[in-house]
Amino acid sequence: ISINKLGNGIAKIDDREISILKKNLRGATHNDLVALTIDDSNNYGIVSRIIERDNSNYVGEVIQKNGKLYIKDKRLGIINVSNDMHLVEGEKVLIHHENGNIKIVGGIGHKDDPGIDIKTILYDHNFGFEHSSEILAELEEIPSYLTEKEIRQELKKGRIDYRGEKIVTIDCDDTKDIDDGISIKQLDNGNIELKVFIADVAHYVKEGSAIDDDAHKRGTSVYPPGSVDPMLDHKISNGICSLNPNVDRLAMCYTTTFNKDGKVIDFKVEEAIINSKKKMKYSDVNRILEQDELVSGYEEYLKELYLMYKLSLLISKQLESNGHLNFISPETKVILDDKYNVDRLEQRYSGAAEKLIEYFMIITNIEVAKYALFLGIPHIYRIHGEPDQDRLIKTYKILKANNYIKGKEKKKYSHTDIQKTIEQLKELENAHIFSKLLITFQDKAKYSDDNIGHYAIGAIVYSHNTSPIRRRPDLINQRIIKSFLHNGLEYTQDKYNDLKEVAIHCSARERDAESAEREAVDMKKAEYMESHIGEIHTGFVSYVCRFGIWVVLENGVEGFIHINNLPHDKYNYSEDFIALFGRNYKFCIGDKLEIKVKSVSKDNRTVDFVISKDYLKNEINSKQNVKKKIKK
């Protein structure tokens, strides 16, 4: 069960979401495992039993009521404060909730402190915690650079010296934890050799160490706006393991050879020593590849960049033929100022450089997963099941009813059907709305020790290996592959014979990180809109429910219009068409609307809209035309 911003509960059972009103929670709190009595007629539930209490950290705020101090948390309610705690009103307090018992750990800052809003969300999702003394002691032992002595020792052990290779990294402008570097060359026979170098994190993060245990607990790095909560301390993530330019680094080398059509004909795994020659920026590489602009400092890398671009297009074509689904999903980037306040919002789409790196990492991850599967090496796979066909059929009915796509309805939709639909949608200005709907009706990817393939990638086997600085499964897979290279298959199979629980834990922590990042972005979007109340904006209906509609604006901000704030009418909700139909008005997913910002709550991370009067006056069709549309 999860508790939403209004204090009501939502429970997910076999892809079905059950709503629980606050009065029917019966003592259940956020993340508890509960038994429900469900009313199928309205999809509402009542908590009949609490099976297992959540053991988590939360952050509450000290409030004053009738001259007394209390701690308020939207999920745990009001908590009494003892007189000897010396707390002040407005202070944020860490609360540990275990088996129904609540313990106040201590203050973490005041609500008005810069960045405390982000910190609160991280703590709420069990991220952001401080390092223990054991971790700090181990970090002291981690070197800041590679010595000549260690390089000689590693070369004697069989590492390959690739410091003479023309290796580059391509990343965001502000990236400091660089996992991957690449080099490329065209062979005499016309084949293309791509080397992907991944930071050898397992060399420094020893299994069973306090640093390793801490990385397991975190599970992943988290990237809220303007900051990062790293899985591994900055000394590792930004230092000795980051593939920074012009310094020697230990790495894993994955060499993939392609024929002239972009098909993989050979794959090899090695331990390496490298020295990256240049840290490239996505923005610069996009100017070169998309606008044919000569960017200063890139002159000697143009041949390699154009070859990379050529190969990325060939890989894209091969992936597409295997069923890769390239959804349309712009990212809203929240830009903060030096006081952690929102400076601006930017809608970003992937350019040629971003896609180039994405395809290189996808193909490398596919090949590493194949390597592990076919050799019998234990592995944590990234799996993604087939979509629910009933949901897909429902989506296609909506698209066809609104004339967004054409073609006959089918009983089953394939990879090819979805690919064609995405291509058709690209021509629409509301393409991202329906692309998101197609994603929503897909299964969620997760980690598993049992391979079932990855539907959205279009791969029979897939795993994560290219970000060991940022993701726990990548680090574990790297450690296992290194064990295989040094100790052989039998030893490795025996040592890593049970990865199921690890995969479940990593999947859960990934979901926690996604929730934390999403909440932080929504909060900062709400903060940004506080100064835009009363303004008129254009947006698209992103979803519809019985109680109203959600509208997403051009800047990526999503707000809600309650049914009471829609034009007066008698509305009926259609689940089949995700629409509200009235006698005079209809509101369907994908509709373009002009709205007015009504109110904002940063604390609840909500933005409320109303439909602008001018839009109702000028844009809504006459009753006669609307009735014709509704009838159709």
Write up what this structure looks like:
It contains 16 helices and 29 strands. The chain is α+β, with helices and mostly antiparallel strands and 632 residues long. The strands form nine sheets. It has a five-stranded antiparallel sheet. Strands 11-16-15-14-13 form a five-stranded mixed sheet. Helix 1 (116-124) packs antiparallel against helix 14 (500-529), helix 7 (302-321) crosses helix 8 and helix 12 (472-487) packs antiparallel against helix 13 (489-495). The longest helix is centred in the last third of the chain and has 30 residues, at 500-529.
Tags for this entry?
632 residues; alpha+beta; 5-stranded antiparallel β-sheet; 5-stranded mixed β-sheet; 16 helices; 29 strands; 31% helix
Helix-strand blueprint:
Layout: E1 2-3, E2 9-13, E3 16-20, E4 33-39, E5 44-52, E6 56-65, E7 68-73, E8 77-80, E9 91-98, E10 101-110, H1 116-124, H2 133-141, H3 148-156, E11 160-161, E12 168-171, E13 180-186, E14 192-199, H4 210-218, H5 234-240, E15 248-258, E16 264-275, E17 278-281, H6 282-291, H7 302-321, E18 331-336, E19 342-348, H8 352-375, E20 381-383, H9 389-401, H10 415-425, H11 431-440, E21 446-448, H12 472-487, H13 489-495, H14 500-529, E22 536-545, E23 548-553, E24 558-562, E25 572-574, E26 579-581, E27 586-588, E28 592-601, E29 606-611, H15 613-618, H16 623-631
Parallel strand pairs: 11-16, 12-17
Antiparallel strand pairs: 1-2, 2-3, 4-5, 6-7, 6-9, 7-8, 9-10, 13-14, 14-15, 15-16, 18-19, 20-21, 22-23, 22-28, 23-24, 25-26, 26-27, 28-29
Helix pairs in contact: 1-14, 7-8, 12-13
